């Protein structure tokens, strides 16, 4: 009886037990390191940035370097980020959704559609700074409406190129989820392909398409590299989309190396605002699909 | 799949025979096709525009651009080696840290080592890193990571200074710091894709291995990891692609030197970093050309890496079903 008992409960050899414990420890340590990095970033942004978060930062311009005691903020940079992201969305969302409709409704498994998908995944992997270089060559170096140089339009164009593959690939996924029967039912009632696509397929995929678009917007709102030498920066309010335009991300970069503590403080506070915008958009996109 | 395809064929032919609106359907399809072709053209447009702008530099420096260390804006002498070296080395350091940690995070979030209510928030949190704008990570790098790593870098120099890799005293910003910050930024890519690969591994094979007496970690090392190897390799290469092109965070912590140093504790430079630093002030045609040449190299490099990753995932991907 005792012999039987002992055999049933025979412990693992020491080596194998140690292996399990050792691997558990390494796994726990690795995960802890990854989380530590994330929590440290979030904690530090809020610790340094929140004290500077007053109403005036949204409504005033950056104070001249070295001046303290005057209202200082980055209203113009928020304006610039919102403006450029909006133009980028206007350019790439319609184009992206139409491309996705081609992929899911017309092209399907054809060679052209396969190439479009391949090109889109390549495009999504192109470094954002290279997209900035492209926008620099196409718009900054060219003369548009008698204006040559850095502009909000160039920045928005770069952001649009970055958004496009995200919009196309996520919209195609959304359209593919619409049951085939709905398309047949619509056609059976006499609808042509335009009516079917827009009134049936797009309408029922709308929430997931919105999620994809919002994710793309969240992604490009934080982009800095493609704006550095397309939109550049400016210390004043925006009057014209053909002028150099400030943005939150470029402002954080410019002020991060500043010798003035007020400017570094402004960079931290701008980080809180930018991170808040990005995370809120992310969260919103998740809520939309959950409600459905 | 087949039947729905046949059905849609029927649908198409019906609607074409269908009468008044047939031309509308056809022209709609053509319109969409043109849009899709324009999307393909965008990539080629990008490549050709950058090539055209780089042409003066390609003409002047040729292939020697890749092996020259000179970068002198005043003398209009340009060479890419310093930046190419920095890009490759900083990405290699990033992989060194991010690959093991990423794989362990993927195991923790896909295997049943922890209860489900801990696992899914963990995965979400690690992926949250990917949504933090890189300029914010860079700001954190300047004011938090550099001070944290400074004593470690000094210690490495004092203890192992005889190894060329640690042969210089650090100022703070260095190749090593850039590698660490890149590791943080590519960690979510590697962890999330590896997790998806592992999650798609059939649980029958897991339970079969464990019912033969393997412990959970033995099952992971002898069954799960070998079977997921190609997927993990794809994830790592995608991570590499991200690391090569990452700009802001690296620019802010690498120190932007114009010399190659054997020491990882010395400041360095990368292709994206020099583009970010010099493009806003570039005026001379040859200077712009040289920067465009650098972007072309970066473009080609990331293109090759990403196509390789897609190829690996597609060819050696899971065929469990």
Structure description:
- The complex is a heterodimer of chains A (292) and B (321).
- Chain A has helices at 2-8, 14-49, 56-59, 75-107, 111-125, 128-140, 152-176, 180-188, 193-221, 225-228, 248-256, 261-291; strands spanning 143-144, 147-148.
- Chain A is mostly helical and 292 residues long.
- Chain A has a two-stranded antiparallel sheet with strand order 1-2.
- The longest helix of chain A is centred in the first third of the chain and has 36 residues, at 14-49.
- Chain A is flat, with a radius of gyration of 26 Å.
- In chain A, 48% of the residues are buried.
- By secondary structure, chain B is mainly alpha-helical.
- Helix content of chain B is 74%, strand content 1%.
- Chain B contains eleven helices and two strands; from the N terminus they run ααββααααααααα.
- In chain B, strands 1-2 form a two-stranded antiparallel ribbon.
- In chain B, a hairpin with a 4-residue loop joins β1 (71-72) and β2.
- The radius of gyration of chain B is 25 Å and the shape is flat.
- Residues 13-17 of chain B have low confidence and may be disordered.
- Classes of the chains: A mainly alpha (292), B mainly alpha (321).
- Chains A and B meet through α2, α4, α5, α6 and α7 of A and α1, α2, α3, α4 and α5 of B.
């Amino acid at each position: 009886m005792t012999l039987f008992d002992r055999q049933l409960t025979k412990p693992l050899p020491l080596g194998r037990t140690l292996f399990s414990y050792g691997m558990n420890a390494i796994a726990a340590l690795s995960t802890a390191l990854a989380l530590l990095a994330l929590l440290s970033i979030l904690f530090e942004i809020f610790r340094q940035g929140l004290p500077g978060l007053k109403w005036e930062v949204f409504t005033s311009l950056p104070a001249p370097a070295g001046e303290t005691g005057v209202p200082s903020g980055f209203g113009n940079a928020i304006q610039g980020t919102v403006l450029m992201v909006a133009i980028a969305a206007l350019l790439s969302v319609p184009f992206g959704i139409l491309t996705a409709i081609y992929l899911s409704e017309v092209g399907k498994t054809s060679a052209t559609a396969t190439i479009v998908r391949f090109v889109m995944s390549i495009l999504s992997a192109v470094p954002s700074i290279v997209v900035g270089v492209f926008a620099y060559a196409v718009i900054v170096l060219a003369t548009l409406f008698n204006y040559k140089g850095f502009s909000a339009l160039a920045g928005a164009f770069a952001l649009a190129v970055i958004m496009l593959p995200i919009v196309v690939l996520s919209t195609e996924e959304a359209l593919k989820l619409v049951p085939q029967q709905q398309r047949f039912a619509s056609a059976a009632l006499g609808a042509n392909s335009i009516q079917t696509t827009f009134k049936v397929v797009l309408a029922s995929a709308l929430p997931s398409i919105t999620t994809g678009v919002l994710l793309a917007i969240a992604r490009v709102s934080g982009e800095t590299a493609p704006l550095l030498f397309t939109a550049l920066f400016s210390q004043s309010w925006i009057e014209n989309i053909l002028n150099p335009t400030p943005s939150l991300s470029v402002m954080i970069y410019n002020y991060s190396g500043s010798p003035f503590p007020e400017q570094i403080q402004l960079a931290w506070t701008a980080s809180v605002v930018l991170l808040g915008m990005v995370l809120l958009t992310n969260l919103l996109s998740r809520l939309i699909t959950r409600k459905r | 799949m087949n039947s729905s395809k046949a059905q849609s064929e029927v649908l198409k032919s019906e609607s074409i025979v269908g009468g008044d609106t047939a031309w509308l359907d056809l022209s709609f399809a053509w319109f969409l096709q043109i849009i899709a072709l324009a999307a393909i053209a965008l990539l080629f447009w990008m490549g050709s525009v950058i090539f055209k702008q780089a042409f003066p530099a390609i003409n002047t420096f040729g292939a020697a651009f890749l092996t020259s260390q000179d970068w002198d804006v005043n003398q209009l002498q340009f060479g890419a080696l310093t930046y190419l070296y920095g890009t490759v080395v900083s990405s290699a350091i990033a992989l060194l840290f991010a690959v093991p940690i990423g794989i362990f995070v993927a195991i923790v979030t896909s295997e049943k080592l922890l209860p489900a209510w801990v696992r899914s928030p963990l995965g979400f949190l690690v992926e949250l890193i990917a949504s933090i704008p890189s300029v914010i990570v860079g700001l954190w790098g300047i004011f938090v990571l550099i001070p944290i790593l400074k004593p470690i870098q000094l210690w490495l120099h004092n203890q192992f200074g005889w190894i060329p890799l640690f042969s210089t005293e650090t100022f703070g910003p260095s190749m090593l710091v850039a590698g660490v910050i890149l590791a943080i930024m590519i960690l979510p890519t590697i962890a999330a894709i590896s997790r998806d690969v592992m999650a798609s591994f059939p649980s029958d094979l897991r339970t079969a291995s464990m019912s033969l007496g393997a412990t959970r970690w033995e099952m992971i090392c002898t069954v799960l990891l070998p079977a997921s190897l190609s997927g993990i390799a794809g994830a790592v290469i995608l991570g590499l692609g991200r690391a090569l092109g990452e700009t802001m965070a690296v620019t802010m912590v690498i120190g932007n030197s114009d010399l190659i140093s054997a020491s990882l504790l010395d400041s360095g430079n990368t292709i994206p970093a020099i583009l970010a630093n010099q493009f806003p002030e570039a005026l001379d045609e040859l200077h712009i050309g040289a920067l465009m040449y650098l972007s072309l190299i970066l473009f080609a490099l990331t293109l090759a890496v990403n196509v390789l990753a897609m190829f690996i995932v597609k060819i050696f991907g899971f065929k469990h079903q």
